[in-house]
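Weekly modeling sync, notes
Attendees: AB, CL, MP (scribe)

Item 1: holo prediction request
CL wants a bound-state model with 2'-deoxycytidine-5'-monophosphate before deciding which constructs to order. AB pointed out that an apo prediction alone won't tell us much about the pocket. Agreed to run with the ligand included and paste results into these notes for async review.

Input as submitted:
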Amino acid sequence: MRINIAIDGPSAAGKSTIAKRLATQLNYVHLDTGAMYRCTALKALKSNIKLDDEAAVCEMLKTTDIKMTSDGQIFLDGEDVTKEIRNDDVSMAASDVSKLEKVREDLVKRQQEMAKDKGFIMDGRDIGTVVLKDAEVKIFLTASVEARALRRYKQNQELGILDNDLEKIKEDIAQRDYQDTHREHSPSRQAEDAIKVDTSDLTIDEVVDTIMKIVSERIGSK
Ligand code: DC
């Protein structure tokens, strides 16, 4: 019995890491929807398109191809942008373009198309509330700003990103949290039927085990 799993939560809560691990254990496909907003932002920045120009960003998307491989590489119009989309500038710009209603419509449609069948783990902000409303398991993954900033800092170190300042990361995360939860269209929020998992004091293994138990119970009851 295959199901769909939605993982939502704030920036740097560990969604992608956890989703990847779950996908490997379950032999499911992982879709990182944040990467799609990041690709949109990167291309807009490179094309000198204003991040609040909804019509121009939507027009740009008509000729934009975003692909993700099973090992987590992200291709934007055929170019590997896996590292580039994690830069601070792109992170903030992604939060900006994600406010645009028509941009969300375009990307949500692509995400729903990709996950037509069962066996998907999708992570983002609106998966349980909009994209996969009928997902059998919905997790809201969260952690304190301090814990998330430290994780992003370490992740940047591993990726070799030179512009890496913990205080600045903390400020950026708090600002993006505010922006993502206060925007007009599909603000980031916990779905009513989602289970909240606070990862501040948990290891990756502990989070994976916690969610695997929830998934096993759900699959068993199907
Ligand atoms: O998860 P992330 O940090 O890679 O997401 C980048 C930005 O995209 C973030 O500011 C919120 C936005 N986003 C969104 O609005 N909806 C999603 N499903 C995924 C990400």
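Recorded for review: The first strand starts at residue 5 and ends at 8.
Action items: CL to compare against the apo run; MP to circulate these notes.
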